[in-house]
Amino acid sequence: MKQLSLDRRIQSLFPIALASILVLGTARLVLDNLKSNQSYVFQQYGKARGEKQRLPVVVSPEDRIDESCNVFEGKWVWDNLSYPLYTEESCPYLVKQTTCQRNGRPDSFYKNWRWQPNGCNLPRFDALKLLQMLRGKRLMLVGDSVQRSQFESLVCLVQSVIPRGKKSLERIPPRKIFKIHEYDASIEYYWAPFIVESISDHATNHTVKKRMVKLDAIAKHGKHWEGVDVLVFESYVWWRYKPTINATYGSSEDVQEYNVTTAYRLAMETWANWLESTINPQTQQVYFMSMSPTHLWSWEWKPGSNENCFNESYPIQGSSYWGTGSSLEIKDIVEDVLAELRVNVTLLNITQLSEFRKDAHTSIYGERKGKLLNKEQRADPNNFADCIHWCLPGVPDTWNEILFAYLLKNHQNLS
Predict the structure, then answer these.
(1) pTM for this structure?
(2) Cis amide leading into 84 (omega within 30)
(3) How far apart are the first and last CA of the chain?
(4) CB atoms near residue 271 (< 10 Å)
(5) Catalytic residue among 145, 206, 327, 411, which?
(6) Tens digit of pLDDT for each residue in 363-411?
(7) Among the options 216, 229, 386, 397, which is catalytic?
(8) Beta strand pairing status for 367-368 and 138-143?
(9) pLDDT at 26 exceeding the cut of 80
(10) 21-30 mean pLDDT
């Protein structure tokens, strides 16, 4: 009888012992994961042996844009006290294509406009905060020369807070890599004007008489994007050269002429498939920049004229200007593709706010085929003014202020 009672007591203790083992095992797994280099907590705040302890990056509610705030709707306001955020002289990483004042532009008003959203404010750009969020990470901007200017803008916005000797710029075509050594971080640019593969993928020698795009090929580019923590894509201007484009789809030997909007949709679907098969939404963020507008025909904002962006010194006033250089069909394709994606991609819709800035292009104060315009070319702005690219400091700085606002918004505090 005593043996039976003892057996029953042992049996009653068995579930408790089993539960204890399970709890201890789960705790061990959690602790092992926290110590792992792959864990989110370690990546954010851990340290390797011999490294200094990382301080947590805390983004307060005041730093984050409110869900109700549409930062893409607003107006440009004059602010010569706070802007520009840097100067041509203070940033050694600017290329000649964008340094308009150094290249002879007589006015500087284009530098002093601040984008003011309706009913809310963009957070002030904080270079140190951005570098803290990028510690141990890579941020890469992918696209054409317009995207390259956004890369140069971002480098200029952060470089002044990094001590000399602790930053470097490397050119490894098709990439440019700005390294912030103390933070083990990098801001990078990757040349891919169509996102998918094309015969214009050489970083410097990409001007061809007939453009040809491989609409279903992306692997050569994609291998450089794998594992990048923050990817920012853009692709538009190179598609707009003509209404049609030569391309392959399926067979690499079967070159056909496609309507540009059809080709663009196929290319975007190829990109979307790559994202869904490759991106880890737990560790990577993806953004897509909407169209950067052009200002090729002044009659669109100044009826009766027959010029372009040359000699324009002030933004377009009003709230609804939309030039013919920005394709509504392409806009709709981007929105359709992003809506169907199974991974999250944030659309940074900078088109409308940039539409107002007819004054901010490089005009005759930039480069053409790698050289500054000569005296004769500058005397013929109708044929030689560049109304596609932007001066720096300038509009791309605002794009990066918005990107920074979304990085703050999406940052995960350790709770």
Answers:
(1) 0.86
(2) yes
(3) 55
(4) 24
(5) 145
(6) 999 998 889 999 999 999 999 999 999 999 999 999 999 999 999 999 8
(7) 386
(8) unpaired
(9) no
(10) 52
